[in-house]
Amino acid sequence: MITHEAVSNTILDVNQRFGINSNDRMLLLSSLCFDLSVFDIFGAFQVGAALVLSEDPKNSRALIETI
């Protein structure tokens, strides 16, 4: 089991390393079943960034429209 502290520290580190802040928008592409989705969701929320959801992430035209 991964502790809350470990997840929080990882998210904080990645946000600082890449300079992610409240002015950013992050596109959620990872499946919620994939562990990377934890960063996609909580990484944005931790710094107040916008989390953008695509209506159909498997459709390249829909992704282009979203971007």
Brief characterization of the structure:
The protein is mainly alpha-helical.
Helices and strands, in order, run as HEHEH
Report the biggest beta sheet as strand number plus sense, adding barrel if it closes: 2 strands, parallel
Give the overall average pLDDT: 90
Count of individual beta strands: 2
Protein name: AMP-dependent synthetase/ligase domain-containing protein
InterPro entries: AMP-dep_synth/lig_dom, ANL_N_sf
Transmembrane segments: 27-53
Pfam families: AMP-binding
Task: Walk me through this protein's architecture.
The protein has 67 residues and is mainly α. It has helices at 4-18, 36-47, 60-66; strands at 25-28, 50-53. It has a two-stranded parallel sheet with strand order 1-2. The longest helix is centred in the N-terminal third of the chain and has 15 residues, at 4-18. The protein is flat, with a radius of gyration of 13 Å. It starts with a helix and ends with a helix. The model has no long low-confidence stretch (mean pLDDT 90).
